[in-house]
């Protein structure tokens, strides 16, 4: 399913006005075809947090998994996995820009912030950390929702369509453009893409 990004919260991994394809099947169990794929750390997902009618869809990266504890302190992100005693720092240098790497705060506060992720919930953040509305602050809507994303809110996994960016697919770095040109051209020739531009753009202004 094609979407058009509106905003810079995932910069430099994804760009404002960039078209992406959202895989709506991977996280769904389809009998006799394939079993459900679990949401994994590092996945970039499109979801509907229902914070307002104007901001229907968000695109963010999954950092914390169900049952884990996530800590943000002095610009770094740490994870305490289920059953573990210690926090382990996450290496985000692969996808964060120099400006954002080791610069994760909560509204500019660098002191320790702890998030206890409930079962069946996910903690997400934008790659453009200082310009992203995400789980750190309940998507700026703590009065109407919590910090975490529920499986029922997830639309699918974001797949990049870009002339130059290489992404990792099942552990192998490939040029995704070569694999999706034909698919994307088919999408762009249909009216569904025009409808997406008007009604289903990812509203992600910060």
Fraction of residues in H or I helices: 10-25%
What order do the SSEs take from the amino end to the carboxyl end, as H and E?
Answer: EEEEEEEEEEEEHHE
Number of helices: 2
Cα(first) to Cα(last) distance is 24 Å
Concise summary:
With 206 residues, the protein is an alpha+beta fold.
Task: Please describe the topology of this protein.
Layout: E1 2-6, E2 19-23, E3 44-47, E4 58-64, E5 69-73, E6 76-80, E7 88-89, E8 113-116, E9 123-125, E10 154-160, E11 167-169, E12 172-174, H1 176-188, H2 191-199, E13 202-203
Parallel strand pairs: 1-13
Antiparallel strand pairs: 1-2, 2-10, 3-4, 3-10, 4-9, 5-6, 5-8, 6-7, 11-12
Outline the structure in words.
This protein is of the alpha+beta class and 206 residues long. It has helices at 176-188, 191-199, and strands at residues 2-6, 19-23, 44-47, 58-64, 69-73, 76-80, 88-89, 113-116, 123-125, 154-160, 167-169, 172-174, 202-203. The strands form three sheets. Strands 9-4-3-10-2-1-13 form a seven-stranded mixed sheet. Strands 7-6-5-8 form a four-stranded antiparallel sheet, with no helix packed on it. Strand 5 (69-73) and strand 6 form a beta hairpin. It starts with a strand and ends with a strand.
Which key terms come to mind for this protein?
seven-stranded mixed β-sheet, alpha+beta, about 25% strand, four-stranded antiparallel β-sheet, about 210 residues, about 10% helix
